[in-house]
Structure formats: C-alpha cells, structure tokens
Amino acid sequence: MVKCQWCGSNTAQETNNTVYWELPDGTKAIEIRETPSIHCPECGMTYQSDELVKEIEDQLFLIDTSKLEKSMTFETLMAVPRLLKRNYFDFSK
Ligand SMILES: [Zn+2]
C-alpha cells in the first residue's frame, strides 16, 4: 500500500498500466505497456510517480526515438541503449 498523491488515501496500490507518451520532439506518441503505476481505489486515479515520469522522459531524451516501436513494454523501452549526446557546451572545437 502506498499513499495516494492526489487524495492522500493510504489505500493506493502499485500496479502496471498501459500509458501513452508523447515523444520529446512531439512527432508522435508511443504506447508503453506494463508501466509501473499507482492506482488509488479511493479517488479512482491511476498515475505514475514523479520519479518514474522523470525516468521515462530522460530515457526518451537519450535514445534514438525514430527507431522505437509504436507499442512496447516499459522494460523494453528502458533497455534501449542510450546515445552518447554531443556536449553542446564544449566550444573548444
Ligand atoms: Zn487517491
């Protein structure tokens, strides 16, 4: 049992849920299945924790999203290797 961040009830439960996520560049939305989520029977909300939202957004920012399937599981998404990003603040070259 976890505390619901919406209504404060202590009856929320961890669950897995399908979510739709817009890519950082806004070109498309993907379906992420089996995403760790929290469901609160008290207020009916199903949502992802802030930490998880950040984890997904970081991952989408750091991988090549053009090669992503339209639908995948959370585990598959998080297993996509991250690209080495260019350092935009390196002016020495
Ligand atoms: Zn609630």
Looking at this protein, list some descriptive labels.
elongated, four-stranded mixed beta sheet, binds zinc ion, 2 helices, alpha+beta, 20% helix
Which small compounds were modeled alongside the protein?
A: zinc ion
Write down how many β-strands occur, each being a DSSP E stretch of 2 or more residues: 4
Our count of helices gives 2
Radius of gyration, Cα only, in angstroms? 16 Å
Which class best fits the helix and strand makeup?
Answer: alpha+beta
Average predicted confidence as pLDDT: 91
H/E topology pattern: EEEHEH
Characterize the structure shown.
- With 93 residues, the protein is an alpha+beta fold.
- The protein has a domain at 16-34 and 50-79.
- It contains two helices and four strands, in the order E-E-E-H-E-H.
- A hairpin with a 6-residue loop joins strand 1 (13-22) and strand 2 (29-39).
- It is elongated and about 50 Å long.
- The mean pLDDT is 91.
- Bound molecules: zinc ion.
- Zinc ion binds next to loops.
Please outline what is shown here.
By secondary structure, the protein is α+β, with helices and mostly antiparallel strands.
Write the layout of secondary structure elements.
Layout: E1 13-22, E2 29-39, E3 46-47, H1 50-62, E4 71-73, H2 74-79
Parallel strand pairs: 2-4
Antiparallel strand pairs: 1-2, 2-3
Bound molecules: zinc ion.
